[in-house]
Structures are given as structure tokens and as C-alpha cells.
TrEMBL record:
Domain Metallo-beta-lactamase: 13-233
Domain of life: Bacteria
CDD domains cross-referenced by the UniProt entry: TTHA0252-CPSF-like_MBL-fold
Protein name as catalogued: MBL fold metallo-hydrolase
Keywords carried by this UniProt record: Hydrolase
Cell cycle recorded as keyword: no
Domain Beta-Casp as annotated: residue spans: 238-364
Pfam families according to UniProt: Beta-Casp, Lactamase_B, RMMBL
InterPro entries on file: Beta_Casp (IPR022712), MBL (IPR050698), Metallo-B-lactamas (IPR001279), RibonucZ/Hydroxyglut_hydro (IPR036866), RMMBL (IPR011108)
Naturally occurring in which organism (per UniProt): Candidatus Magasanikbacteria bacterium CG10_big_fil_rev_8_21_14_0_10_42_10
MF GO annotations: hydrolase activity; RNA endonuclease activity
Length: 450
């Protein structure tokens, strides 16, 4: 068996790994490359393999950088099954439609090409095969099982057995004790692990403090009297933040009273999926659900679905808070709010997720004094804060623990889905701790399963 890396190699996006057994060709994920642009030029290049020869694809989770090129794979002739959990496949459909919408919008403005059609999305949907956590299924001679990764709703890591060897792919590994989700399961003993390394060189603040940190930043923002902007990934970060705000507003009664807007159509569309698969909930979320508490709804929250409603936020006097995508500020409604409020010294930007190199979010995180949005130069005068504990990804400590969680470390670990520095540092730490072989593969590199 061998693995070739066709994305997320020395970078964080574009996850796509080809597994070749003696008899099967299987893809783990097929995501979009995302940097400064929503839809990077690289997405339009031909696949380095023939999509018609792929037997099946197994999807770790719905995020665009893990699923976004699947309709293109279908466009180019892939007709095999697409496996993932119910939650993943349902959210992937929303993600594809949302991406299509953004691409056609950009196409009208800048003539950027659109990666696939609505027909390709419909075709991809017809190839979906939902599977349950922990229930093994076969792809030819290979046996595959999905386990909970605790990263986003429905997210999984993948274990595959074939040719007398066993491999695993972490997908994206969740942070500890996150709201709503269960903690990630332990890894089985494997010969080779493909492992993400987004935060491979960082340690988050104490996750038990995340609610306190969020409350403190929100209170400070309210005190400054301006607008609090929170760019958040529409899937998961947004729902977790709503869950915590709901708790602060209704149970703890600690949240100051001021208007909060959920200004993300994708996040709004995803809410029904979150209320459908309650078996994914952790203990606390289950208890709330059983009590009848709708944890995506509280008094001061307004959902702004339409463009008109979104524009209406401008007329609401501050202090106010806006939660909007995209999470890395490379598109979406947050751009319009940033244009308006970044230059306001009373306003606050709270960054809650990973910011890839080249994105506006990253430049602001690194302290840019001036940025360009829609061809306008905007001076940055607002206060900028970041909360690592709200990240959807495990930090270095979590990853090191998880890699050894079966009791026997994998024989070989390939680090993907991380900037070069993060991937290399996690590789060194893994080698030091477990004495195993580590690889930080380049794009197109093949690694044998030994
Ligand atoms: Zn992810």
C-alpha cells in the first residue's frame, strides 16, 4: 500500500490524499486550496491522477478545504461512492452550494472562473453514501472505519485496513472539551498515520477558560462602545460561539445586554443539521437538548439571512456584535463590516480561528496598520484580539497525546495540513517522544506503507 499527497502538503488547505492498495484507489478528502483568494488558481489545475480510475472517496469532514473539489472530481469523471458520516455529507452539500454562490458572485465582479456547475453538485450528491461512526464498511478489499475526531459536527478520522497493513488519517483533530461535540476518540494501532499539524508549533490557552476569555473580550468590546466583529467559520465555530453566548445570556446571566447579529447564511442553513443528529452531542449539550433549551437562540440574538437584513445592521447603534463568515476574512459578509469598522478606534475584531498565510485575517492578526478591501485602503484603528482556546484544532500537546493514544505509536507519521514550520516542529516532537519515523511530505510525494 502507498500514499501520495495531492494537497495540504506544506500548507493548510487543499486536503487530498491518494491511497493505492494492491486492488483499489481511494481518496481521503478532496478539498479546495484557499489562501488570499477564496478560490485559488491551483484549484483549476487538472488532477495529477485520472478521476475516472478512483474507486471511492472517504471524506473526513465537511469543511471546504476537505470537500471543496469533490464536485470538480465528479465533473472530471469520478463516479464512485462518496463516504462520510450523515452530518458530514449533509453539511458538505451546503458548503458546495455556498461555494458555488460565492464563485458565481466573484465571477460577475472579477471574471474569476467558477470551478463547477450546479449539475456537478447534484451529481456528487447522488454519489453520497452516509455511514455511521464505528461501523466498518468495505471498499473492494479494503475495510474502512470512521471515528469521531471532535473537530466539527460529524467530523471523523479514518482508519483503513488493506494488504495486511493498517493506516489512518486524522482529518482535522478537534480541540479538547469543546462545546456541543464529544471529545475525539483514541487512535487504533496503525502502521502509518497521516496527521494534521495546523497548530503543530503552538499551545493554546487553557480550554477550560474559553468561556471566561470570550466573556472578558466581549465585555471589553462593549465598554469601548463600538462594533465587535467576529469572523467565524460558518460550520462549528459559529455554532459553538452561539452555544456559549446562549449559556452566558440565559444560565449565567453574565452577558451584557446588547444586540448580537448572526450574519452568515451558511451558518444559518447549517443550524437544522445541528438539531437533527443529536447523537453527536456531548453530555452537556444532550442535557440542554433534553430540557428543551434551544442553544442557538437567546433574547439578544438576531438572525440576518437576507442581504437587506444584513445591510440593516449598519443602522443599529453600537455597541453591537456581528458574527459573520468567512473565518479567515477572504470573502463573505465579514468583508463589508470590516470595510466599515476596522478604522473605528471604538470597534473590536475578535479572531477565533486559524488564519492562513495570505488572508486578510492573518494580516490583521499580525498587526497590519493598513489593509486593502474591495480596492479601498483602510487604516486599522480598531482593537484586535485573538482567542486560541476557541480554535477548532488540537494544539501541539493534544496532537502528541492523540498520536500515541492507542498505547503503541504508529510506525510512521506523515505530517500534512500545516505550514512548514508547524508540520516540521510537530514531526520533531513526535520523533523525540515516540522514536518513530516522521515525514513532512511535499506535494506529489509518495510514501510506502511498511
Ligand atoms: Zn476542518
Amino acid at each position: 500500500m502507498k500514499v501520495t499527497f495531492f494537497g495540504a502538503a506544506h500548507e493548510v488547505t487543499g486536503s487530498c490524499h491518494l491511497i493505492e492498495t494492491k486492488t483499489e484507489k481511494i481518496l481521503f478528502d478532496c478539498g479546495m486550496f484557499q489562501g488570499g483568494q477564496f478560490n485559488e488558481q491551483k484549484n483549476h489545475e487538472d488532477f495529477q491522477f485520472d478521476p475516472r480510475t478512483i474507486d471511492a472517496i472517504v471524506v473526513s469532514h465537511a469543511h471546504l478545504d476537505h470537500t471543496g473539489r469533490i464536485p470538480k472530481l465528479v465533473r472530471d469523471g469520478f463516479r464512485g461512492p462518496i463516504y462520510g458520516t450523515n452530518g458530514t455529507l449533509e453539511l458538505a452539500e451546503l458548503i458546495w452550494k455556498d461555494a458555488y454562490h460565492i464563485m458565481t458572485y466573484n465571477n460577475k465582479k472579477t471574471e474569476d472562473p467558477v470551478l463547477y456547475t450546479e449539475e456537478d453538485i447534484a451529481q456528487a450528491m447522488s454519489q453520497q453514501h452516509p455511514v455511521s461512526y464505528r461501523e466498518p464498511f468495505s471498499i473492494g478489499n479494503a475495510t474502512v472505519v470512521l471515528k469521531d475526531a471532535g473537530h466539527i459536527f460529524g467530523s471523523s478520522f479514518i482508519e483503513l485496513t488493506a494488504d495486511g497493513k493498517k493506516i489512518a488519517f486524522s482529518g482535522d483533530m478537534g480541540n479538547e472539551n469543546v462545546p456541543i461535540l464529544q471529545d475525539s476518540e483514541s487512535l487504533d494501532s496503525v502502521d502509518l498515520l497521516i496527521c494534521e499539524s495546523t497548530y503543530g508549533d503552538r499551545v493554546h490557552e487553557d480550554e477550560n477558560m474559553r468561556k471566561e476569555i470570550l466573556l472578558k473580550l466581549v465585555k471589553e468590546g462593549v465598554q469601548r462602545g463600538g462594533t465587535i466583529m467576529m469572523p467565524a467559520f460558518s460550520l462549528e465555530r459559529t455554532q459553538e460561539i452561539l452555544y456559549m453566548l446562549d449559556e452566558m445570556a440565559e444560565e449565567d446571566k453574565t452577558l451584557p445586554h446588547f444586540p448580537i447579529f448572526l450574519d452568515s447564511p451558511l451558518a444559518i442553513d447549517a443550524l437544522p443539521t445541528y438539531t437533527k443528529y443529536t447523537e453527536y452531542y456531548d453530555k452537556d449539550a444532550t442535557a440542554k437538548y433534553k430540557k428543551g433549551d434551544d442553544f442557538f437562540e437567546f433574547n439578544q440574538l438576531t438572525i440576518t439571512r437576507s442581504v437587506e437584513e444584513s445591510k440593516g445592521i449598519n443602522d443599529v447603534p453600537p455597541p453591537k456584535m456581528i458574527i459573520a463568515g468567512s473565518g479567515m476574512m477572504n470573502g463573505g459578509r465579514i468583508m463589508h463590516h470590516a470595510l466599515r469598522y476596522l478604522s473605528d478606534p471604538k470597534s473590536t475584531l475578535i479572531i477565533v480561528g486559524y488564519q492562513a498565510e495570505g488572508t486578510l485575517g492573518r494580516r490583521l492578526y499580525e498587526g497590519a496598520e493598513q489593509v486593502r478591501i474591495f480596492n479601498e485602503h483602510i487604516p486599522v484603528h480598531c482593537t484586535i484580539k485573538a482567542i486560541g482556546a476557541l480554535s477548532a484544532h488540537g494544539d501541539q500537546n493534544k496532537m502528541l497525546e492523540w498520536i500515541g493514544s492507542s498505547g503503541t505509536a504508529p510506525k510512521k507519521v506523515c505530517f500534512v495540513h500545516g505550514d512548514e514550520h508547524a508540520a516540521t516542529e510537530l514531526a520533531h516532537k513526535t520523533r523525540d517522544r515516540y522514536g518513530v519515523k516522521t515525514v513532512v511530505p511535499a506535494f506529489g510525494e509518495t510514501v510506502e506503507v511498511e
